[in-house]
């Protein structure tokens, strides 16, 4: 009896998740009904069904973040976090911007540097299971870009002050 009830409850939860996902993807939708917009929507839906990494190229204001949200909320990751990192804004006002930026992206261990009084979860870990949208990656220094792309390619990170790889 309990197995049947559990199966029924799971089925209902999965239906609720699908309804919420459809509701959210409708909220983050593109306005318009031209052939180009319809083709774009279809491409995004195909992308959302995969686990591929996506690179958006376009001018500020062209809808890159909206497209990323639409992919996220149209995918199986819709119930997981959607984290946004504006890489250009991360440098502002930081004395040791390189170390601070790595900490924001990858996290750090307690004692990893002078002000690291506690463990910190970075944006990559925060977005685990969901989507991480990185804005203005071109504003980063080349060495940070290399570390960032290495982490994306290997699907793993290393917190500042740690030797452990985290998937």
Question: What oligomeric state is this?
Answer: single chain
Series of secondary-structure elements, N-terminal to C-terminal:
HHHEHHHEH
List low-confidence stretches.
none
- What's the alpha carbon Rg, rounded to whole Å? 19 Å
Q: Can you offer a commentary on this structure?
A:
The structure is a single chain. With about 170 residues, the protein is mainly alpha-helical. The chain has helices at about 1-25, 35-50, 65-75, 85-90, 95-105, 125, 140-155, and strands spanning about 80-85, 130-135. The protein has a two-stranded parallel sheet with strand order 1-2. Helix 1 (about 1-25) packs antiparallel against helix 3.
Strand and helix map with partners:
Layout: H1 2-27, H2 35-48, H3 64-73, E1 82-86, H4 87-90, H5 97-106, H6 123-126, E2 131-135, H7 142-154
Helix pairs in contact: 1-3, 2-3
Top keywords for this entry?
167 residues, 49% helix, two-stranded parallel sheet, single chain
In short:
The protein has 167 residues and is mostly helical. Helices cover 49% and strands 6% of the residues. Helix 1 (2-27) runs antiparallel to helix 3 (64-73) and helix 2 (35-48) crosses helix 3 (64-73).
């Amino acid at each position: 009896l309990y197995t049947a009830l559990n199966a029924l409850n799971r089925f209902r939860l999965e239906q609720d998740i699908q309804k919420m996902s459809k509701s959210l993807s409708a909220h983050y939708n593109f306005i318009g009904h031209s052939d180009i917009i319809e083709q774009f929507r279809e491409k995004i839906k195909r992308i959302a069904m995969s686990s591929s990494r996506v690179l958006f190229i376009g001018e500020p204001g062209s809808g890159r973040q909206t497209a990323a949200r639409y992919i996220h909320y149209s995918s199986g990751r819709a119930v997981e976090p959607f984290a946004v990192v504006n890489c250009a804004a991360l440098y502002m006002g930081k004395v040791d911007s390189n170390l601070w930026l790595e900490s924001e992206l990858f996290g750090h261990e307690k004692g990893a540097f002078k002000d690291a009084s506690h463990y910190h979860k970075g944006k990559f870990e925060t977005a685990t299971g969901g989507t991480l949208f990185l804005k203005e990656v071109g504003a980063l220094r080349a060495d940070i870009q290399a570390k960032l792309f290495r982490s994306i390619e290997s699907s793993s990170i290393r917190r500042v002050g740690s030797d452990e790889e985290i998937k």
